[in-house]
Amino acid sequence: MKKVFLIFCLVLHSCFAEIPWGPEPEWVKPIPFETSGFSSKNEAMAEGLLYDYQIDIDRNAEYIRKFKWIKNASGVQQHSNIILDFDPLGESLMMHSLKVHRGGTVIDKSESALFKLVQQENNLSQFLYEGIQSWIVFIDDMRPGDLLEYSFSRQGHKALKKPFSTTYYLHFDIPIKAAHFRILSNKSHELQFRGHRTDVTPTKKEWDKDRWEWSWNLQEVSALPLENGLPFWYEDPHLQISEYKSWKEVAEWNKKLFETQPESIQDALLLAQEFKQKHADPMAQALDAIRYVQDHIRYLGLEMGENSYLPTQPDIVLKRRYGDCKDKTLLLVTLLNSIFEGNEYKAYPALVHTEWKEHVEKALPSSKMFNHAIVYVKGPQSDFWIDPTLSEQGGRLHNLTVSPFGKALVVDSTSESLVSIDPLASHGRIEIDAKYTLDKEKDPVALSLNFTFLAKEADYVRDWLSRKGLKDFEEYFVRLYSKRYPGFELISPTGLNDDRDVNILTVNMEANLPNPWTVEEGKERKTIKLFSPYIEEILNFNVDTSRKSPMYLDFPINVMETHRLNNPQGWENEEEHDHWETEEMAYRYDFDAKDNYVYIRNELRTFKDHIPVEKLADNRSLIEKADERAVQYIHVYTGDADGLNWYEYVGLGFILLGVLFIAASSRLLHWFDMKGFRAEESLTDADKSYLMEPSMSSYALGGFILRKHWDLLFTWIFIAVSLVATRFINLPEDAKLALTVMIGFLYYLVYSYASMQGRRVSWNRGGWDSMEAFKASESRWSAWWNETKWFTVLFDWTFLVLIDAISWPIGLLLTLLSFVLMSNYIRIIPVKIEYGRK
To answer: For residue range 398-410, what is the model confidence (pLDDT) as tens digits?
Structure first.
């Protein structure tokens, strides 16, 4: 309530306040400057003639003085207003001068200018209330050619309580002729300096017996051209200054801030006890505590005064049911350490930077190098990272995810350096399966979309659904797909399944594509264009190889989009596989047409948050290839609607040849039957049994020819039945395999039976006078066989191989080409894949 009243007072004060005026502070060192006799070769609308920035560390004060040359009308428009920010809870602002130099005359604008105190709160949308106020100065009667001079200072209300650190940026939005920087401090301060993209080195000298002065000057500083798409951590040239000697000092100083008072954690300890009573497993108790802080303590930061760095005590946070990252971290650490009491787990606050990430280790040790707090849990076998500011997070304690912060400073007296955060702690994946069902009789295509979000991606979508609802999620993807497929419309309610414990969230959408086909004039085909919209959105940026700075890359990305075209009539088999990879990203493309489906898979992954300048060309090449594969043209050959295709005529011709081949082999058998079938001859039952006995050693040529006749016929039948059964019957793969084996076994039985009837065939074809004569002839043949076995075996197997070499390929060819003739009913569609943005 006290803070709310204070905020009200600040707002009321801003309505009636007047900007304070006063002389320049006595510690400021005047910098002489000539207001005439200068010239410029650049064409900027305004140019800084002087930028003077001075700090007194022990007074917790800073002084700024600026000279600007307004060169044209655009400069007047852009530079006739001044914005001066300050934190009213921690400092005061005082104006010292406001002048316009025009033609040798100095015009004081302190009375005529309009001053307005505002509080804009630019981060309210992120639930941050910083309390920063701004004096906006509207200067009257500004003209091209004027020199604008103004100076002001900020004075901290209290002496600096923590080690000093700051950053000086050495480039500006307009050219600067001269820049002067100065720091005053007591000799007890031991400052360290580190330049980033600059070789500036401050000069140190004694100011008086108790104080040091550090200073440096810059001349003719050009305006820094800002390239688009910079990584967040890639800042302008700057000089970092810090009084901290090591990260250990930073950790020790912050440890004092995160200390709790016994009287301020009693409610938190009672809450931890509730979790203990609910579960026997400490891991389940800890998960309850995490979800309580994430989902029941809302995020709100009142970053004013000491609240900008000092966490609120746990019991106060529980009572308010809101807090910023520091507040929620301290509360969760308190709960977890109460739960883990007596075992080997221990929770600590940890500091990270959401933009600098792992690049923070390149900076000097400083508390100002962090802008976010999370929780680190150290265990006997594994460690965990937890972000208490997240909400609707899924998973168990061992697989909770955090953003890819890269490096963290664990707030503990034993911390010596920054700690790496396992990249797996930031893992996530999106899988999009698009199934297209084609109908030969209809142009519309049914599209089934199945979205699977895993780990961190599931957390993001779950939070999205919690904030905006399923309807908003649905509308986003409808817009995304409608850009690529005009007329895209959902035909059934969107399905949602969320397994929060496993942290997998799936969404299913059923849609229609009214008319996705394009018929090409003069070509016997129609074309459907397939898109990978999600990957296309990610790849929607240009890699300029001429840029001078690294390029931002979204990280981590792990997305797979799969297309499956279901055609009951079948596809012609075809496949293609590509994979490209650099140190920064990878792309995989697979195309496979098989059975009733065409499978197309596009997969994109990133490994870093930026592309270095020297790697721009390699990654541009990869992105161009990936961008081509993200759009596929599927050409389906439909044939002549008024008659048969050329290949159907050829197929018909082979069918006729096959009939003639079978007829010819049958006629050959009949030639061996020229003496007629002796059915009228009476045989004893014993003779009939003898003739019906299976015999693979028939010596009659008629029996051999019949054997090969059956060989060809059953080979053809077997291939035809097997292909039809396994290709066009909608059965699981295991069932299709079993059916093929059964058909093959049946073929073997029938073929073997036909092959072993040589004795009966020889009797019917040979015209024997009596059974005795037949048996005597068979005995003589057997004796001859035994005497000339090597010759007979050679002749028999040579003839057998020749017949097999002819019969099997012809049977297979006739079977396959017979499907062409049946294409009006069962068509194996030739399919061609092309890709690219045409």
So the answer is: 889 999 999 999 9
